[in-house]
Amino acid sequence: MDEHALPAERFEADRAHLRAVAYRMLGSLSEAEDAVQDAWLRVSRADVSDVENITGWLTTIVARVCLNVLRARKSRPEESYEADAVPDVAAGPQERVDPEQEAVLAESVGLALLVVLDTLAPDERLAFVLHDMFAVPFDQIGPMIERTPAAARQLASRARRRVKGSSPAPAADLARRRPVVDAFLTAIRGGDFETLVTLLHPDVVLNADRWVIPTPEPVVLDGGHTVAKAAMAAIGRAQFTGVALVDGQVGLAMAPYGRLVIVLCFTIVDGAITEIDVIADPDRIAGIEIAALDAQDRL
Asked: Into how many domains does the chain fold?
């Protein structure tokens, strides 16, 4: 073995960090694992005798691997996950990863944040993730994307604005609505039917477009118990659902592996949910601004 090559033990010491970088770049744990392994294959025989900061060097390599993956996605976009194909998780290569593990990781990072990151251009995502989440300086980021440090800074700033959203509702309004939406999601995840009913107005109306189930026509349900029963049927999907800013208001976003497939918008009056709009139509979702409600806490 080359005495100047990177020891496997040294790489393993940074694996958790590198996986964290790759996951935020790609939004999929299995793809992140693949990116880290690809990086190892690239560096395992490299001469590191002149490398002063091994962790920084490895971070750069993993980021470049992820950038190539993101650019390939943009040039050959995969078909969007269809709502009826996502009873618990989306089908695909991610099946190699435990769905519960994937959901826990998404929750820890912030599901809405992952959704917003998925809407960014590859260079924007790299600049934002490396600088805002891992404190990599722009003079190191610029060369990765063949930009000047100033240009990389602009990309990160543009991404930051997307993450925060352009026009959130007043803070007081968000503070009133957030506990209700949080409790709604918690009740579904916990299978707590009685609590769910108490959150719904007796005359609540649920509107679901035809992509949600799917059905030939949109579905309209009314009445607290009826809507609660329908909501409880989505208990499997709830693990990939998180609170987000939906066009500036507190709502829910369902996004397995960071890919947005369903949005829930709420009308709340006097602390009770009076209307729920469930949207899965790709064209409608494309026109909705999703932002990370807890962006400042996540970064």
From this structure: 2
Let me know if residue 156 belongs to a domain: yes
Calculate the alpha carbon distances from 193 to 188, 225, 243 in Å: 7, 9, 20
Q: H helices of the chain, where?
A: 8-26, 29-43, 54-75, 99-109, 111-119, 122-128, 134, 138-144, 149-164, 171-189, 193-199, 224-232, 282-286, 295-298
**3-state secondary structure at position 219:** strand
Question: Does some domain include residue 258?
Answer: yes
In a shared domain, residues 149 and 251: no
Distances (CA, A) of 259 to 134, 165, 185, 200, 205: 23, 18, 19, 28, 27
pLDDT along the chain (299 residues), means of 10: 73 95 94 96 85 93 96 68 41 57 87 91 97 96 96 96 84 91 96 97 97 90 96 89 93 90 96 97 93 66
